[in-house]
Amino acid sequence: MPIEQAPGVYPTLLAGYQRLGIRSVADLIRHYPSRYETRPDHTAVVDLVGGQPGAAAGIVARSRWVSGGWGRKGRFEAVLEDDTGVLRMIWFNSPFLRDKVQPGVRLTVNGKVRRVDGMAEMVNPRWRVLGEDEAPERAGPRLRPIYPTTEGLTSDRIAGHVSKTLAWALEQVEDPLPEGLRKDQNLPTLARAFEMIHTPDQEDDHLAARRRLAYNELLLVQLGVQLKCAFIRDHYSAPSIESSDRVDQRIRDRMPFTLTGAQDEVVAQIASDMARDLPMNRLLQGDVGAGKTLVAVYAMMLAASKGWSSALMAPTEVLAIQHYQRLAQTLTGADLPVHLVTAGMEVPALTADRPRLLVGTQALLNREGLTERIALVIIDEQHRFGVRQRGQLRQTEAGSAPATVFKKHHRPHQLVMTATPIPRTLALTLFGDLDVSTIREAPQGRRPIQTKVSSPEQMDHVLADVIERARAGEPGFVVLPTIDDRGETDDDEETVLGVEARARQLMNSPLGEFGVEMVHGRMPADQRQRAMTAFGSGRSKVLVATTVIEVGVDVPDAGWMVIEQAERFGLAQLHQLRGRIGRIAGDTPCVCHLISRPTTDQAVQRMAAIVKSTNGFEIAELDLQIRGMGEFYGTRQAGASPLRMARLPEDEPLLRLAGRDAKGIIKDDPRLMRPEHRLIRRVLELQLGESIDLIDIG
């Protein structure tokens, strides 16, 4: 039900809900409290302790509205009496209380107590009118939920509407968990869990509810992963490409570098996967510069040894061109053509006697029947592609008939690469269908990087430093989050520069004598390429860019970087950007200047973390701790996080329990078609169908 159709929704409430992303009644019920306040025990007024929370009940003796005067807002004052004393109460900017808190009304109030001239006083206390025979200690729940809020919408207002909504909505909640599984895990029903999380009578209530709701989320994700794995096993096959000592040696002879021990280990895992007729689905993660591309080259040449073509897809044209150039150089003299496929380019015919390597952007997705002669698909920086894009590249020819027990669909082996290391619990949750390979060896022969945080007022000192470095022959980057200029707020007189304005400014500054180029996503491809060529060849020493240079841009002697408005970038993204410098051997430190004015605790933590560590795996774990699972998920996939209640890594035991249960369910019912599983399948499709890539299943 759309939230605007729910009873009790008025325009101000609806506007607040829209800002919070609450679009339906289900969203409202799943807008969980962020914390709880404990209502203090009722005491006599004389026993209220200054500086402590307190609660009391009595009769309003007198009240008045005090105008602020001169346009200032006023306050409402009232005095509460019981048999032991009087309590003065003050509410600011609340004229509506004049009609509600009147002399003779019985109230229960609670809030922080202070003593003023010996008299107990509460400012803006919570209050409730007591019924004629109602005892104070029964007035409201002991635990008060505190909700995430937005401008114009208080936690109390949300709590009141949630309580009224639960009264009729919980009757319509169907529990997707089979009753046997729910009882085995000692979990409350879903309706009861919603009730306890929003209106707990005691501490144990919301803890039990949180466990059920977190388990629900984790089980859904794990079921999606297992459902997809089972479907692939039953409906798809890939070419079996077996290696040999002779083939392995021929491939290694073509390599520009000797593989490291970590690369050897990953290559062995990939060769083992590709030898089977079950499609490989492997994630290769490693820090910036760890040598993932060389592993990908090995896998493509292994496929070519059996007459199969491969495709490598990059998220940007800049990166696709760089991959193409590297592959073409590596395979010079080999009978293995490399083709670049971007928008408007033709794909060469793929035949068994003429294997080819295709390198491109998402333009590869628009070629019908492309996968028929492709045995291996490699996706670089996978988190920068949409879910449907990744699925489309793996699909067979459009309109092909469903697989039967006699014949399975052809599906290429898939290798997914990322230089953004994934925390262990995140990998278990969101990438559970992928086998994970990790290159943990730090890149060898690279200059150390110093990271420094400066305020915008210190920009002149930063520019003085990079001018000296440019004068010494070092190229470098200036990175900004936007192309166009913007104000910090709608009425802010100060303009924050975008890429185009900053580039023009630097061209007319002392840095301009070293050559300034500009790159961003709205530029025509030929202009971007000319700028990259000028910078890469050394004709220009400064490249002003957006995050288009985050991955793949390889200018080995680049020795400095300035990232403006750094608080607007994620921690992993800052690490990725920083990885563009210091890519050659040397002892002289490079420098990464972060220009930042952090205004939130998260931003302050990010700046501290990126200065502290240059290890991508450490940074990934810190990123998860700082931002939480929900926001971290959002950087990887489109749409809202499926984990609103589950918290990782602390819920890892619950994650493993959900994973075990999901495997058992899918083993017995691979399509979730049994009557007891149909509702959970429907919930899975509605909530997570696209987010966890169930588009292959239908």
User: Average pLDDT value?
Assistant: 84
Rg calc? 31 Å
Count of DSSP helices?
20
Distance between the termini: 25 Å
Strand content: 15-25%
| Oligomer classification | single chain
Overall spatial form:
globular
- The low-pLDDT segments are 383-390, 396-406, 488-493, 632-640
- What can be said about the biggest beta sheet? 7 strands, parallel
Strand order of the largest sheet: 12-13-11-14-16-10-17
Percentage of helical residues? 25-40%
The counted number of beta strands is 25
**Overall SS class:** alpha/beta
What does this 3D model show about the protein?
Helix content is 35%, strand content 19%. With 698 residues, the chain is α/β, with parallel strands linked by helices. The protein has a 7-stranded parallel beta sheet, sandwiched between helices. Helix 6 packs across helix 19, helix 8 packs parallel to helix 9 and helix 17 (601-612) runs antiparallel to helix 18 (616-636). It is globular, with a radius of gyration of 31 Å. The two termini are 25 Å apart.
What descriptors fit this protein?
698 residues, alpha/beta, 6-stranded parallel β-sheet, 35% helix, 19% strand
